[in-house]
Amino acid sequence: MPYICTLELATSISHSTKPFCSPSSDQKMALAGKMMMYLEINSPGEVLHDIVRNRPNDIASMLPDKVHSCDLVEGQWGAVGSVICWNFTYDGKKEIIKQEIEEVNEENHKIVFKVLEARLVENIYKSFKIIFHVEPKGDGKLAAVTFEFEKVNPRIPYPTAFMDYLCDVFKGVDDYNTSK
């Protein structure tokens, strides 16, 4: 299956109906943003959800060039309130993201991560969430990744490169699971 990634961007703007205009003195771009990515997948939704929720450390063995480890810092794997720490390579640099599992929905194969610490978002975003879920699409399935964030100022660009990175990771996990 070809690599297909659809991206939807949304930002609120006051005093304007144009969604992506440049802010001026009478138009101020809101600092809250939302970004969504859809990826066609072959793996069953419950399999990808289980990996992301309960076995994220397995991704390191599936994609060692991208993800080096995922460690449980506190709590239990997959439990709301648990904190995990990812070690990975992004844009040629070693990175770390510490995140808390904020919500889990087994029926919709959904998990919400609140980013607690990461150089990638430090001094750029006041808050940053990563939401993963799987939804049906005709005869197939879509993995959906959503970023919800609040920028420290309106000039901060959307995190599109990081979304592309996650698109690559999820496609790699899907390919790994469907080739077994």
Descriptive report:
There is one protein chain. The protein is α+β, with helices and mostly antiparallel strands. The chain contains three helices and eight strands. The chain has helices spanning 45-54, 58-62, 160-179, and strands at residues 5-13, 29-41, 67-74, 83-90, 93-105, 110-118, 125-137, 140-151. Strands 1-2-8-7-6-5-4-3 form an eight-stranded antiparallel beta sheet. The longest helix is centred in the last third of the chain and has 20 residues, at 160-179. It starts with a strand and ends with a helix. The model is unreliable at 1-5 and 13-28 (pLDDT under 50).
Low-confidence stretches: 1-5, 13-28
> Element order, helices and strands?
EEHHEEEEEEH
What structural class is derived from the secondary structure elements?
alpha+beta
How many helices? 3
Number of strands: 8
Largest sheet strand order: 1-2-8-7-6-5-4-3
Strand portion, in percent? over 45%
Q: Could you say which overall geometry the principal axes of the C-alpha atoms support?
A: globular
Q: Which bin fits the share of residues in helices? A: 10-25%
- Main sheet, how many strands, which sense, barrel? 8 strands, antiparallel
